[in-house]
Each structure stands twice: as structure tokens, then as C-alpha cells.
């Protein structure tokens, strides 16, 4: 597998509980390198654009409300097979189903307040990175 880039969000439930460093440590321990990082506070409309793929789902409004409730940390992670590796370190969407040692198992509060986002494919990774970062901000 080649070196890839993926997009990550440390979500409001995690920034609020001051877990940013502990979550970044999990990425780094897995061999993922943070090549861009910034703390931002989304509007509900901006969260809605980011999660537009879920707009027909019953939890969409709650999701956008949550994602704009507190600051988040958006990052680009780089490494071997980074998209799959990040999904592995994150754990299952529902923390009740997440494997031991994963971020969501250790830190998530619920299926909605689940501490992290990670891209699920190369196309979405590229789109998500471009939504939040200019090319010059990626320092590999
Ligand atoms: P993931 O974040 O693991 O890629 P997803 O893309 O299916 O999961 O959903 C995006 C986010 O939406 C997820 O992180 C939390 C929220 N979500 C998903 N399913 C939910 C549900 N059944 N109830 C409430 N929120 C949900
Ligand atoms: Mg997803």
C-alpha cells in the first residue's frame, strides 16, 4: 500500500473534555503523521455541507447541531494505508461495538458524540481535505 492522506476531525465532545492530545497520540502511535492541523468552530450550515451525504438520515439535524456546538480540531493525517489505518484506530461508529484500544472505545460518549471523524475512501478524503485546507497548509 502506498502513502496516503486522510482527513480527521476531533469532534466537540472530545475538544470539550480536553482530549485532543490523547487522541493525537493514538494517531501517532499508529504511525500516522499530522501534516496539517487547526482548531475551528463550524457554523451549523458549514457542518451541514460537510455531512450533506447524510442529509436524508433521521439524525442529520442533531448531527449538524452537535458538530457546531463547540470547537473542533481538523487535521490531515499521512501514512502507509492512512485511510484504513485511521478507521481502525477510530473504531466502530457505535462505541458499544468498538474494539478495545480504539479511540471510540476509550473516549466516545454515544453513537452521535463519538469523538472523531475519519474519511472512508480516497475520493472523500480528497474532497474533505479540500473543504478545510488550502494546498499550502499541508506540510508533509
Ligand atoms: P462514521 O463517523 O463512523 O464514518 P457515519 O458516516 O455512518 O459514521 O455517520 C456519520 C456520523 O453521524 C457518525 O460519526 C455519528 C452520526 N451517526 C451515525 N449514525 C447515527 C445514529 N444511528 N444515531 C445518531 N447519530 C449517528
Ligand atoms: Mg462516515
Automatic annotation (TrEMBL):
Entry keywords, A to Z: ATP-binding, Cytoplasm, Kinase, Magnesium, Metal-binding, Nucleotide metabolism, Nucleotide-binding, Phosphoprotein, Transferase
Source organism superkingdom: Bacteria
Subcellular location(s) per record: Cytoplasm
One GO CC annotation: cytoplasm
GO biological process, one term: CTP biosynthetic process
EC number(s) stated in the UniProt entry for this protein: 2.7.4.6
Residues of the active site: 117 (pros-phosphohistidine intermediate)
SUPFAM superfamilies noted in UniProt: Nucleoside diphosphate kinase, NDK (SSF54919)
Cofactor list: Mg(2+)
Positions of ATP binding: 11, 59, 87, 93, 104, 114
Chief localization: cytoplasm
Catalytic activity: a ribonucleoside 5'-diphosphate + ATP = a ribonucleoside 5'-triphosphate + ADP; a 2'-deoxyribonucleoside 5'-diphosphate + ATP = a 2'-deoxyribonucleoside 5'-triphosphate + ADP
Domain annotation Nucleoside diphosphate kinase-like: ranges: 3-140
Broad class of enzyme this protein falls into: transferase
Pfam families: NDK (PF00334)
Family: Belongs to the NDK family.
Role noted for this protein: Major role in the synthesis of nucleoside triphosphates other than ATP. The ATP gamma phosphate is transferred to the NDP beta phosphate via a ping-pong mechanism, using a phosphorylated active-site intermediate.
Quaternary context: Homotetramer.
Designated name of the protein: Nucleoside diphosphate kinase
Organism: Litoreibacter roseus
Taxonomic path: Bacteria, Pseudomonadati, Pseudomonadota, Alphaproteobacteria, Rhodobacterales
Name of the coding gene: ndk
Amino acid at each position: 500500500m502506498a502513502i496516503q492522506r486522510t482527513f480527521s476531525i476531533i469532534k466537540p465532545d472530545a475538544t470539550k473534555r480536553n482530549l485532543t492530545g490523547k487522541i493525537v497520540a493514538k494517531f501517532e502511535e499508529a504511525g500516522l503523521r499530522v501534516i496539517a492541523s487547526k482548531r475551528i468552530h463550524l457554523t451549523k450550515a458549514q457542518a451541514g455541507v460537510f455531512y450533506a451525504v447524510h442529509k436524508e438520515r433521521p439524525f442529520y439535524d442533531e448531527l449538524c447541531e452537535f458538530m457546531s456546538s463547540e470547537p473542533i480540531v481538523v487535521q490531515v493525517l499521512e501514512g502507509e494505508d492512512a485511510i484504513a489505518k485511521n478507521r481502525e484506530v477510530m473504531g466502530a461508529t457505535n462505541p458499544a461495538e468498538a474494539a478495545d484500544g480504539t479511540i471510540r472505545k476509550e473516549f466516545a460518549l454515544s453513537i452521535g458524540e463519538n469523538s472523531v471523524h475519519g474519511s472512508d475512501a480516497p475520493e472523500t478524503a480528497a474532497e474533505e481535505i479540500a473543504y478545510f485546507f488550502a494546498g499550502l497548509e499541508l506540510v508533509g
